[in-house]
Design goal:
The strands form 8 sheets. The protein has a 6-stranded antiparallel sheet. It has a 6-stranded antiparallel barrel with strand order 6-15-18-17-16-19. It has a 4-stranded antiparallel sheet with strand order 7-14-12-9, with no helix packed on it. β27 and β28 (457-461) form a beta hairpin. The chain has 10 helices and 33 strands. By secondary structure, the chain is of the alpha+beta class. The radius of gyration is 45 Å and the shape is elongated.
């Protein structure tokens, strides 16, 4: 036909003096091929994986469950291996994309939160070296900056006054011993003088203060307390007039040149954190300010109330922009695995409970097709998943659209994510019937039971009837590849014939029948959803609110007109039932 088209085209062009030989033929052939391919894609029938009665020409969504429709003509050729073959056009319409199984180390990045706290290493309490009464304070408010050696308080201390008087007396004794010329006496006086001087030092007096007392020759009633470290006042602990004891804190300081970022790590993430791990800390209050640091400490226990472990990161704060109490977030990174680690995109994996599977692009088949493979996975790191078993480096898997491929295989009755790929062990059916969740392959059922044939089986019992899960008629399991036999069909119809035949009423707003009824029981003129049996009817045309299918009218003559009008509808339903 293509050659005839080219010949006719050339004749027409020759008539106009414009036939261009092979070039025109090639362009025309390519255009015709593209048109045929496009027509095939547009004519491809699409079906809902969960409601096979919903079919249409071209992609779309199911009006019942709103799932994406999948190509119903996908197959794996004549191969005995369960597979799905998609043409290039079908892959494009179904938005299926492939990805390689990659080998190599991965970088695990995750975000945690916390806040800035004062470094405990920089906290200093300035205490009284001697007991007494606070005469004056030189630091009065939180937030004041204190330098090392700065005077912070003045204390009146009777104990210190007595010690100063003892010092003056010890000096007089030393001078007298030196004047006497007695070496032993001088040595004893010298030792006593040194002991009293050391006592004053221990009471908080500096060497210059002690020398000032000796030079003046009189004891001072008060002593000044000086800062032994620099920092910011976090808390003033005393007031003027308070009595303090030796060693009692007067002022609490904190050096803020280095602060701590305390990160809260949830229990499930503890294994992902280690000392020395890089951390990029972001403080929202400072906009895009990011500090690069490392984790330098992990708390040895979990906080019982919040169920988090604290991880500490030291941050430099020379400019003083980081203030305790600020909230922060941190991005932690770790390297996972080596050059032999296998991984695939996360969206390529189909999870069903404890099972994981992918669809591998098998080029050894003719033609190439997608083959289901059960795999063992490890950690999920970002948009990738570690593969422990089931694939090798260089394999190609469906990274996007895997669910559509699985739905197509499920409609054909092949193994899918809803059924075990390798489990062929027989299953038992209880006397009262058994519901299988997840569904099982019909091959695993014992012969003679009646089951709901949806490609896989979600219900079976020991007699004919309707599935209590979906309302469809059960078929009998026989030895002939599970296909319903003529006897089974006869029993099915016989069961149907013995359903109640009393007329039913349809209310003005429409009636839903659960369980479904025979359409013969409906009044003439009603519009109903003909699924073999009827689960909905109303007094006007429209769509079924249960399954979304178009309603048909009930007429006289054993519903012949209705059945004839809905012949195509029943035919599609029958095909969907058996294919699904």
């Amino acid at each position: 036909m293509k050659r005839w088209g080219v010949a006719l085209g050339c004749l027409a062009l020759l008539g106009g003096g414009a036939c261009r030989g092979d070039s025109a033929e090639g362009e025309h052939g390519d255009h015709a091929h593209a048109s045929e391919q496009g027509a095939q894609d547009e004519a491809q029938e699409y079906v809902c994986p969960m409601h096979p009665q919903v079919r249409q020409d071209g992609p779309g969504t199911c009006p019942i469950c709103f799932m994406d429709l999948v190509p119903s003509g996908s197959d794996g050729g004549d191969s005995d291996i369960p597979s799905v073959r998609l043409s290039e056009g079908s892959r494009r319409l179904a938005q299926v994309a492939n990805a390689n199984v990659e080998a190599g180390a991965l970088v695990d990045t995750f975000e945690v939160f916390g806040k800035i706290e004062v470094s405990e290493k920089s906290e200093v309490d300035l205490s009284a070296w001697v007991g007494g009464r606070i005469e004056r304070l030189y630091v009065n408010a939180r937030g004041e900056e204190v330098k090392r050696g700065q005077r912070i308080a003045r204390i009146y201390s009777p104990q210190l006054l007595t010690a100063q008087q003892t010092l003056l007396q010890a000096r007089r004794n030393l001078e007298a011993a030196q004047a006497s010329g007695s070496v032993p006496r001088e040595r004893a006086a010298q030792a006593s003088f040194a002991a009293v001087r050391e006592e004053l030092r221990l009471l908080g007096m500096g060497a210059r203060q002690i020398d000032a007392v000796l030079s003046e020759g009189s004891a001072r009633k008060t002593v000044d307390v000086f800062a032994t470290a620099s920092g910011t006042v976090r808390e003033r602990l005393v007031s003027v007039g308070d009595y303090v004891t030796t060693g009692e804190p007067l002022v609490s300081l904190a050096a803020l040149d280095t602060v701590w970022a305390q990160l809260e790590i949830f229990e499930q993430d503890i294994s992902r954190v280690s000392v020395g791990q890089p951390a990029n800390v972001r403080i929202p209050a400072l906009g895009d300010h990011i500090v690069e640091a490392r984790v330098d400490f992990l708390a040895p226990e979990i906080e019982p109330e919040r169920r988090v472990m604290l991880a500490r990161v030291a941050l430099p704060n020379d400019e003083g922009r980081l203030r305790p109490g600020m909230y922060l977030s941190a991005e932690l990174e770790r390297r996972v695995g080596d050059e032999h680690l296998l991984s695939i995109p996360r969206e390529a994996v189909l999870w069903t409970g404890s099972r994981s599977m992918v669809y591998r692009w098998d080029t050894s088949l003719e033609p190439p097709a997608y083959v289901p493979e059960r795999i063992e996975i490890g950690e999920r790191l970002g948009d990738r998943v570690i593969v422990r078993d089931g694939l090798k480096a260089g394999d190609v898997v469906a990274a996007r659209g895997a669910f559509r491929i699985d739905a197509s295989l499920q409609i054909k009755g092949g193994p899918s994510m809803m059924s075990e790929l390798t489990d062929t062990s027989p299953v038992e059916v209880a006397p009262e019937g058994t519901r299988f969740d997840p569904a099982v392959d019909a091959e695993r059922l014992p012969e003679g039971v009646w089951f709901c044939d949806m490609g896989t089986t979600h219900y079976a019992q020991h007699g004919s009837g309707e599935c209590p899960v979906c309302g469809m008629f059960l078929v009998e399991k026989t030895g002939d590849e599970d296909a319903p036999t003529e006897d089974a069909t006869h029993d099915h119809e016989h069961h149907h014939d013995h359903e109640p035949t009393s007329p039913v009423e349809v209310v003005p707003e429409g009636t839903r029948f659960d369980p479904a009824i025979d359409p013969e029981r409906l009044p003439e003129g009603a519009w109903f959803c003909d699924m073999g049996t009827t689960h909905y009817a109303q007094h006007a045309s429209g769509e079924c609110p249960v399954c979304g299918m178009s309603l048909v009218e009930k007429t006289g003559g054993d519903s012949a007109s209705a059945k004839e009008a809905n012949h195509g509808h029943n035919h599609e339903q029958s095909e969907g039932h058996h294919g699904h």
